[in-house]
C-alpha cells in the first residue's frame, strides 16, 4: 500500500486509529455529560441522536477493536524478530488493565480494561494460522449476532422500552461538587458493573481482535488492490442501507432508544466500519495525507484518556450532569478535537510518542527508549 513512513510506522493504521478516536469521542460524549432519554431531548438533540445512531454509534469501537488485533500481530512479530519473550506482551496488557481500572474511577464507560482482559486470550492464537483466526472470529461474530437478534425479538414480542438509565446519584454528586464521593461511587459501583459487562461483550471484542489479526497477516503479504477497496466500500455501504433505514423508522416511533434500535445500530456498525476503513485507505492512496487523523492516532491513548479528564472537569465546573443539551456537547467535542490535533502535532515534533504511550512503553520493556 506504500503506507510506511521512514519511522517504520504504518501510516494507514495511525490515520484509521485517529479517525476512530474522533468517532469514539462523539459516542462517549453523552455518557460523559450524563445520559438522557430521547423523549427528554429537544428537536435538535433528537436529530443529532438519530445521526449518531446512523453514522457513529458502534461503528468506531468496531474499528478500534480490529486495529487492536492488527496491533497484536505487529507487536508479536517485533518480539519474534528481537528474540523477546511473549511475557512482554502480558506485561503490556497488565499495564493497560491498570490504566483501565484507574480510568473507571472517573468514568464508567472505559474500554481499556475490556481490551486488556480480552487481549490475554489472543495469546492462545499466537501460533495459529491466519485462517484459524478468521474462522474463530467469524464464529464469535455469528454468536453475537444471534444473541442480539434474540434480544431484538424479545423486545418486539414483549414490548420495547428505553435502555437509557439516567444516573440520579452521579447527578447529585456533580451538582454538589463531591469529587471524592464521585470517585468512591465509581470504585464501589461502576468498576464491578464494568467488569461484569466485559464478561458479556468479551466474545464480540475477541472476535474483532481475531479478524484484525487475520487482516494484518493477510494484507502484509498481499495488500488489497484499489479495485478491491472500491468493491468493499460499495458493497458494505449497500449492505448498511437496510439497517440504516430501520433506524430511521424506529426513531420516528415511540421508543427510539430501545432494544430494537440497539440491534440495528449494532448491525449497521458491522458494515459501515468496513465502509469507513476502505474509504480511508482509498483517500490515502489518492495522495491525501490526513495528517490530523494521523497525529491523533499516534497519541490515541493519551488523547482518549484526556477526553475523560476534560469532560470530568467540565461537569464539575458547571455542576451540570444529565442536563447539558446534546448539541452543546457536540460543539465541545469539535472544539476539543481541534485542540487535540494542534497539541498532538506540536508534541510529536518534539517527542517520538505521546506521554501516556511513553509510560506504557517504559512499563512494558522496563526501560525508557
TrEMBL record:
TM region positions: 12-34, 54-76, 88-106, 112-127, 134-155, 199-216, 228-250, 262-284, 304-324, 330-348
Keywords of this entry: Membrane, Transmembrane, Transmembrane helix
Limits of the DUF418 domain: 226-366
InterPro entries, per the entry: Bact_Transport_Assoc, DUF418
Keyword Transmembrane attributed: yes
Full protein name: DUF418 domain-containing protein
Record lineage: Bacteria, Bacillati, Bacillota, Bacilli, Bacillales
